């Protein structure tokens, strides 16, 4: 992909109809427009991409950045100074939406002062027709709106905007298409997210993701392996395999393949040191996967296994397809097979109809599993989901009280669980210079915990052995082992 000579593409011809060639053509065309504009104003054009939401969106943003850099924009971390500001949005909870509207209002004022400025909106929020209506009406200054299914067309959409004076809107309801071999610019040189599937078919009753990300599609294993091999050749040692429910990977492929089988193939890639994945749905976590994890040398000792609630009654209303007992049994099996595994989770408080008794079940499962960490969320009503129409929405003050009690429990347990590794030595992937003290480096252990230790920048991207001197609750202070 990196070897394409965009200047050699003949722009007097029509755009090719096949992908990714069509996008290469539009990248070449956009380069021309960007360089003309840069000459006109006598400086480089700059961009700033802001990502809301999950790792999927973070990976999508890398694809946006890949295109922007290829067409000649330079990164500008300060949104206020950038010529092209993009919000890659999330709509999983109401407050994610509110943040976007708030910031968008401020951007409008900035645009008045910079006539070259483009504002682009994409991501999950744009898949909601009411959102697009609102932007068309109240935020007329936006230049470009597209959704989650056609992000691969980014270069083409930029060209459309350059060639018209109006707001460009392109949203698809769903797609069965996966376009390979598009550019992307990694945020980290040594680790990368890799999409293995898109969309979700689970329709948990509270969740909007299946509506905004479309039906589940798995990438071909050959394309995944080829991408990872390319990444490894480029210095990547750790990959994070991404999907809303990685455990159902491969079911709809022409030659079906399980997630566990895919992992075994990825394990064989020479030079790749670590494999992570996210997210695992408890209903589909197979014995085969547990077995592969137990025997793997590369799969990290960390499993994110969202429980959502400890009450079987609520789990049923959430359409999660497992009970409290089943979940605990999965946890028992995985701990038996991989004794030092770190478990993390997501929990929703205040789902419609949740009683104090249901909530006690959630506290109980938290106490039984003893998670290394848990993301706790207040239930947010998403229009169009079945739960939004359910009766007995729980009053705000009751939810807030439960949320506070849960958080306290989760934090206390997590501090206890995380400190058990004190005095051990661990393999650590060095990620960055410490934010507060430049003489320290920050690295990540297999179990996803961070450790800070004296070192220097040359270690970034390497796996080193570190002695864990002191547990500090959610992280460690350590010392490099010679
Ligand atoms: N596919 C992943 C989750 C993606 S969304 C999975 O099934 O585990 C990430 C988390 O957001 C979910 O695990 C859930 O805890 C939370 N979430 C989703 N919808 C929500 C809502 N309507 N209100 C509050 N939290 C929600
Ligand atoms: Fe949402 Fe459930 Fe799909 Fe996760 S599995 S994205 S919670 S519908
Ligand atoms: Fe948000 Fe979309 Fe991810 S709604 S959580 S960014 S899939």
TrEMBL record:
Binding site for [4Fe-4S] cluster 2: 200, 204, 207
HAMAP family in UniProt: tRNA_metthiotr_MiaB (MF_01864)
Protein purpose: Catalyzes the methylthiolation of N6-(dimethylallyl)adenosine (i(6)A), leading to the formation of 2-methylthio-N6-(dimethylallyl)adenosine (ms(2)i(6)A) at position 37 in tRNAs that read codons beginning with uridine.
Catalysed reaction, written as an equation: N(6)-dimethylallyladenosine(37) in tRNA + (sulfur carrier)-SH + AH2 + 2 S-adenosyl-L-methionine = 2-methylsulfanyl-N(6)-dimethylallyladenosine(37) in tRNA + (sulfur carrier)-H + 5'-deoxyadenosine + L-methionine + A + S-adenosyl-L-homocysteine + 2 H(+)
Subunit structure: Monomer.
Enzyme Commission code: 2.8.4.3
A Pfam family annotated for this UniProt entry: TRAM
Locations listed in the record: Cytoplasm
Organism: Coprococcus comes
Organism placement in taxonomy: Bacteria, Bacillati, Bacillota, Clostridia, Lachnospirales
TRAM domain boundaries: 419-482
List of residues binding [4Fe-4S] cluster 1: 54, 90, 124
Cofactor dependence: [4Fe-4S] cluster
Protein name as annotated: tRNA-2-methylthio-N(6)-dimethylallyladenosine synthase
Family the entry assigns: Belongs to the methylthiotransferase family. MiaB subfamily.
């Amino acid at each position: 992909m990196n070897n394409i000579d965009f200047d050699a593409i003949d722009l007097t011809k029509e755009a090719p109809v096949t992908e990714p060639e069509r996008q290469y053509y539009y990248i070449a065309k956009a380069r021309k427009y960007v360089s003309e504009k840069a000459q006109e104003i006598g400086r480089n054009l700059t961009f700033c991409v802001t990502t809301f939401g999950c790792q999927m969106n973070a990976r999508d943003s890398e694809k946006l950045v890949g295109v922007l850099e290829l067409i000649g924009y330079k990164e500008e971390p300060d949104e206020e100074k950038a010529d092209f500001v993009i919000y890659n949005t999330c709509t999983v909870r109401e407050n994610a939406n509110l943040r976007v509207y708030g910031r968008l209002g401020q951007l409008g004022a900035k645009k008045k002062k910079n006539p070259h400025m483009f504002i682009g909106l994409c991501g999950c929020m744009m898949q909601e027709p009411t959102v697009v209506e609102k932007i068309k009406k109240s935020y007329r200054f936006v230049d470009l709106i597209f959704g989650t299914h056609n992000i691969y067309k980014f270069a083409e959409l930029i060209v459309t905007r350059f060639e018209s004076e109006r707001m460009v809107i392109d949203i698809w309801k769903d797609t069965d298409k996966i376009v390979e071999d598009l550019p992307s610019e990694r945020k980290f040189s040594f680790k990368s997210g890799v999409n293995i599937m898109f969309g979700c078919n689970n329709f948990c009753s509270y969740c909007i993701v299946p509506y905004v990300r479309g039906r589940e599609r798995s990438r071909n294993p050959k394309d995944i392996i080829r991408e990872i091999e390319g990444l490894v050749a480029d210095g990547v040692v750790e990959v994070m395999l991404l999907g809303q429910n990685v455990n159902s990977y491969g079911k709809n492929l022409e030659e079906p393949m399980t997630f566990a089988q895919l992992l075994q193939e990825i394990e064989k890639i020479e030079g790749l040191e670590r494999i992570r994945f996210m997210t695992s749905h408890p209903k589909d976590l197979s014995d085969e996967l547990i077995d592969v994890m137990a025997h793997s040398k590369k799969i990290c000792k960390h499993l994110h296994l969202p429980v959502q609630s400890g009450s079987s009654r609520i789990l049923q209303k959430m359409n999660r397809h497992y009970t409290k007992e089943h979940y605990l049994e999965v946890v028992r099996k995985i701990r038996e097979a991989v004794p030092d595994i770190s478990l993390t989770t997501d929990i929703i408080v205040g789902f419609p109809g949740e009683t104090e008794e249901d909530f006690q079940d959630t506290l109980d499962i938290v106490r039984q599993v003893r998670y290394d960490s848990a993301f706790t969320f207040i239930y947010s009503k998403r229009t169009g989901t079945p739960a939004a129409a359910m009766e007995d929405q729980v009053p705000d003050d009751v939810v807030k009280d439960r949320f506070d009690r849960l958080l306290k429990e989760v934090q206390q347990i997590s501090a206890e669980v995380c400190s058990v590794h004190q005095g051990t030595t661990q393999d650590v992937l060095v990620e960055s210079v410490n934010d507060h003290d430049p003489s320290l480096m920050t690295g990540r252990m297999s179990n996803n915990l961070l450790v800070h230790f004296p070192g220097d920048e040359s270690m970034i991207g390497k796996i080193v052995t570190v002695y864990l001197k002191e547990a500090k609750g959610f992280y460690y202070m350590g010392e490099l082992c010679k």
